[in-house]
Amino acid sequence: MVSIGRMHARELDAAGIVDGHLRESYERCRRLNAEHGKTYYLATLLLPPEKRPYVHALYGFARYADEIVDDLQSTLTDEQKAQWLGEWGQTFLDDIDRGWSDDPVCRAVVDTVLRWSIPKEHFTAFLHSMTMDLTVTEYRTYEDLYEYVYGSAAVIGLQMVPILEPISDEAYARATDLGVAFQLANFIRDVGEDLDRGRVYLPLDELALFGVTRADLEARVATPEIKLALADQVARVRRLEERSRPGIDMLDPSSRDCINAARILYCGIVDEVERNGYDVFSTRASVPMRRRLAVAGPAWVHAVQARRRAKVAQT
Question: Residues 164-179: pLDDT tens digits?
């Protein structure tokens, strides 16, 4: 039985989640988010307590699916892994239709989907990208890469928007931009780690404009050409981030500090890549803890004040 801490139990109470099995499932998702998504988790704490469990469920599901793929036996072929993932994913989609899951993690996710009327097609797209990642090792163009990024990242933002309570439908398009920016920032930071997995997530035709090939990346030397190519990719992240900003004001005031903090911290990865001289092979860029606290501290105060103003307005 999963032990639920006092603070997290209060969050579940605030969300109206009373069933014991559901509470246990939501706690599993929270732990997955806390362990694997430290920046996301920190930002989630800026949400009102009653919203946090649902966001944990969505991020927990994405992390859970990643772990399932990673844990599939190495003796399986890529085709066998894809078949296994397809069967597991179809079971989850069927669980949404029947309104219940026996899986200890998916139980909370199904509950979140139903409570917030999150479209099932977002999860279909996510599972499609998970399957792609088993066999696709490189992407010729940005359009090719976008098919993967849409399902692996953009739909996570789209899943979250109902929980964040948009005041304009345009918030969905801006959430897509931000989700893609997050994922592309990851790709830039993780070039070396992805090569270890036999993957390149930078468009090959765009690298070629700077005279960079996959073989050049595999040499793991940050040449002037590679640095220029990475700077070009960083520029795209910043354009997407800038385009996403108006979407934050299209959310309920109680949700804005969370997303703004996530935007600053996660897109800040490319700032660190830049500070490291675009050497993505010998140094893993990360946002320093002092920077995280400098963003989260004032955001926490502002979020608490926003919740208090909302309560006053309701009385």
Answer: 999 999 999 999 999 9
